[in-house]
Amino acid sequence: MPNPKNRQRCWCSKDNGRERSRNTVRRHKKETARLIPSFPGADADDGSESEVSVTSSYSGDSEAGPSSPKRRRMHTPSPQPAPNPEPDSPSPEEHTPSPQPSLGGPEPQQEVIVNLPGGGPAPDSDSESEDDDADNAARGAQDIAAAQALDAQSAQAQLTALPEEHEIPPSLVDHVETTQIFIRHIREATLDNGKLDQKTIHHLRDPQAPDLNFADTDVRLCMDIYIAACRSSEEVYRGVRRAIQFHFPETEPLSLEAIRKAVAEIAGRIPQKQMTTIPLGPQLAALRRSRDSARLLRYRDRRTKEILRLIENANQGLDEDEEPTLPPDFVFDDIVCGADYLDLYQDHNMGENDTLVSFSLDGAKLYRNRDSDTWIGIWIVQDYDPSIRFKRKYVLPAFIVPGPKKPKILDSCTFRTFHHLSAIQREDQGRGIRMWDAEKQTVVQSRTFFFLATADAVALPEMDGRVGHHGAHGCRLGCPMKGRHRGSGHYYPVHLLPSNYTRMDCMHPDVDLGEVAAYSSSESTDRYLEQLQTVINSRDEADFAENRKLAGISKPSILAGLLPNRMLPLPRCFSVDLMHLVCINSTEFLISLWRGNPADLCVTTTDKMASWDWRVLTGQRWIDHGELVGRSRQYFPAIFHRPPRNPAEKINSGYKATEYYLYVYGLGPAYFRTLLPRVYWQNFCKLVRAVRILLQRAITKSQLEDAQIYINQFVEEYEWIYYGRRVDRMHFCRPWIHTLLHCPSEVLRLGPGACYSQFTMERAIGDYGRDIRQPSNPFGNLSRIIERHAQLNALYSVYPELAPSSAFQPSKSDLDLGNGYAFLHPTSGTAKSILGRHGMYLIDTLGTSMILWYGRVRLSNGQIIRSAYRDSRLSNPEHRVTRNAKIKFGGQVRFAEVQFYFRLEGNNNWSPKALVSLYSEADPELFADSYGTLYACRYQGDDGLRIINITDIISLVSMQPMPPGDREDLFFAVEKSGLEDVMELLDDGNDNED
After folding, report:
1. Alpha helices, DSSP H only, in 126-173?
2. CB atoms < 10 A from the CB of 949, how many?
3. Fold of 815-974
């Protein structure tokens, strides 16, 4: 949670950064000021008439945030070095050429500038006698003298903004020492030792405004051709160039090599070869070089300030010892709503010029049937609005590690990327790199903050340094729960103590699920550092193996080399990936469990599958079930990018995460109702209810509480009905089941999981992979594709007019309704009389059946919904149904089939309408039994006709018929998850890891 208004960090030697009440902080400041004459009094931070602007060199102080252009306030430092120093510099605004003293350093000295209305020493706001006035005057004189002495010091003695980082003693374990070497080099990173050429370094340190006359030059023609042909062969560009030279001899278009050089000159891309690394600094510098792009980057800071105002208003009148609370109606809809981000923002005085980035890593197979592993890293710029943040042109490539084999030491592949990030964090004594801001028309300094590192369960241990998920302490969030084993080194996260269990090292009692759910990785920082130190200090390999088992840590994370006060602390910069956890691991396992597949379940000889009453997807029933799932495709609109294929035929052929989600969590509550015994079906419905909440892009506090309740109930019931305290079924307790318990608290900490899932990474892999045109050299081709992608992204940021337009362009027959809404063809063209029941209803309701009707509508969210009138014109009888909508009606959320859209002829002021046929309300029994996951309703046809406003339509949905053997007169709704940006992806074997 952010610091409440009436609490501050106290940097006295006793508290050393702890949060205390404002009165306590003032008292400790006074006591410290009596001991150190040059130390500022309590008025320096409380807005009294005498504001003292101090630049301190204490190791471990907290930096002053900007208060005004003329005066700066100070967060008072401790007179003793803090054990974990986190000094910070205020968020820099426009660059000023005159150097200013910076923070940190070994000597306890201060630069004190006293701002007085009439000159002279500053009066103490708490003084009540002439003696106090005299003391304050003397103290002010001492402060001025100290400032003058400091100004006289040489440049080498000037203070630095970089925190002191403790030395890393070499470990005696080779595995650990290898990572430590990388960390040492990353801590020593600068732009000068990062192997960038001098021209690139010069652009980063002395940015210039872009050439605004670029669009008027002949180069623009060549740029347009290069962009249009970027996914084609090189010969396409050369052929177009020859055609231009033939028809326009006076024009000399640039050669392919020259245009590539021009693009690189603008974009500033200097990739490192062997494995291709795209440095982050030049990519970030390009983002602010146009007004549009710079304006988009203001979102994070603007939204953060809105949230802080909301929280402040909700906690007005709060006693100083009470914890602040979120407003009752607070909605988590982005990472800026998370407590960890808000703490990072406030603790380090982040501003609108600063940049927040996250890193994502994953491996992929370029070809299914041959060795073709490749590893790709990307940067996600968190300053953008979530509605555009994950789109192709806003995702920045970081590197590609070519295959065909998996890298043996992944740290060696990520090293160059994080070395460069460390360099730009430490640049200019921690003030960051300089950028040209086109909106401000000046050079600004931007600090780069690191937020999250995400990967799947295979790659994440390589980055966070923890043991795999089958270790004794295998929780990915580092909770203290220990697993249980069956006599081998393979541990399972079993919460209930097995019956007749004799493993003495795992005899701990039943784990309290409430305590596991209440654990937050925010609590793990101190515990992590202590355990990591124990692992590093291991005397030999045997001692290391024991310490690793007890701690759940195998090595330090390479991220430890980044600047500590420019990142979310370790291990809090790691979280849960919902894509693999929910959409793949859980779904794959449940289907295997219900099929009773011995190969996937490692069935023991003492556990007879004949006793599994949940084993229902077998033989002909599995084949029929698969065909039913395959037929559901017709009822999924095209915007549901990947409707599930027949699982009986395709589940082992690259089944995608979106297919698994729609199959298990979309169709599952209805399709499994008549297959699974009731106790298993209801247990599954609790999981569905929680997962649907967790995958939303906007989650309320009450929904989070519901999700936690249903997860706790699901996990407890699951272990009772499937595992049943049997040692030979301990392997049914998979890591994803335990990890689910932590997911709601991660939303409180970091915002909705949909905002930092691996879907963005998987889409990037798909985008890059589709462009491969050289099967004989796929890795070299892919490296060139990623380099070109980075160049074009930078080009679009500097010159937005070059970017292919994705904005909606209505045709002549379409009607733009404003605010993102539009009527789309087909249309009647002129007002016509509607016949039949629809016409009679219009006459009864509106007094006329003469209307101008349209077949489709575009909503403000970009979704296009057809209508029954539009679909009646389609010749394909198996067309996908795209006319069902979720709407607001009578103060409720209902579902309806759209008949057509219309407006009255000659009445342009009349709001556009839709004629819909309402589905009935949900069947109460099915809705209650399924815990709200099965909204089954009856289609009412003409009996449900209603007229609604276009703005009452919320979204497009799928209405599926109930399966055979159930209430076949009912339809049930399936909605998209919050992961709207999912596209068709490459086959990726690593997705199928638990």
Report:
1. 130-151
2. 12
3. SH3 type barrels. (2.30.30)
